[in-house]
Amino acid sequence: PSCNNTTCCCVDSCSVFSLGSVAMGHAFDLILVQSDQDPSLTNCSDVNYSFDPLLGVPNCCIGDIGDADIFLEVENCDIRFPIENNKIKYPASYGQEESGYGGHDAKALKKLTECCSHGEEATRARVVVVAQSNRILAMAPCYIHFWSSSDRIFVCDIDGTITKSNLRGLLDTVVTQQYSYCHDGVCQFLQSLVAKQDELSPAYEPTPTIPNIRILYLSSRPLGLAFSTRKFLQQLRQEQPISQRVTSSLGLPRGPLIGFTGSLRQILVMELMTHSVHEFKARALQRVVNLWNSVDSSSPRARGEKKINPFWAGLGNTYMDAQAYHEAGMDLQQIYIIDKNSEIRCLDRNTATEGMPMDRDDYRASQRTLFPFGYQDKNIIRHILSAKQPDIVSAYI
Length: 397
Fold this sequence. Notes:
Strand content: 15-25%
Distance between the termini: 45 Å
Oligomer: single chain
Helix content: 10-25%
Mean pLDDT: 83
Radius of gyration: 21 Å
Shape: globular
């Protein structure tokens, strides 16, 4: 397939790497969070992009772009936002820059809240390289997810967690684009979690005070695979029986894709040699914690110098995932691990969070509650939605 429309944001449907004379790149999604109590308190994650076609080197542009500039374009927004050092700025022609949270311009953040859809829907955007002649040289599609500070996040790994294995899951979703080798029921599970409805146990009624639950897809895949990974998350479908003769096709719920901002070579070293992927994931989640705390209207002293816990739970397939979630501040009772047989276990034997991080054998020993039917287990949604949630985190990093 090909696409010659270089003015729209809907380039995710194109599988080619370049659109005519416009080079295609990669970008991770953005999380825009706003305080419920004070709408003027708004912050956004950094803009991470790459236009290097081979290794996904961060913030790299393909070819010689000379004096070209980098901008963020947002659907239904009449302003191009300059990007400087991964931060969103306000065009100088529209007025003087105002200091905002996280290094972003305050007026740019305010304008984004006016342009972006709030809640479950996501707003299409793209990072563009623009020449002095105003011609677009390159673009990288992404989405902006606009959430409230009262929302809570369910962190979901991809390889081995949505797919059945790390290696084959990566090959099938990137190389062959065959999306069949996934755990049964994962689409319905995540959709039910977001809807706070247990389709497998219709009699269960969750507590009305449960906040909105948002899905964050956290992967160790590098920037250079952002385009194909997002395509997989958007196009995965699983058949769900409604009755004996009728089925419906379910996809995954929307959620930002966050991954490794370095190169493919770096992540291979971390995966195969140093076994330190959990450190990257913990840092990525810590940045999410910092987003929530930056828009909190209460003082750190009022919280006892602790940080707000924006996480509802985390799901992965290795104890490095568990270690990352724990180091980012989740209690063990908030962490779930799925194995290659699709069995899910909660690490709720020991719910302590304080103290130094544990080693992987300790996480294995913390398994208690078993869900033998995995995502199709009739008790798992109830267990996740009913779990007691801590109000604060005590992160290790």
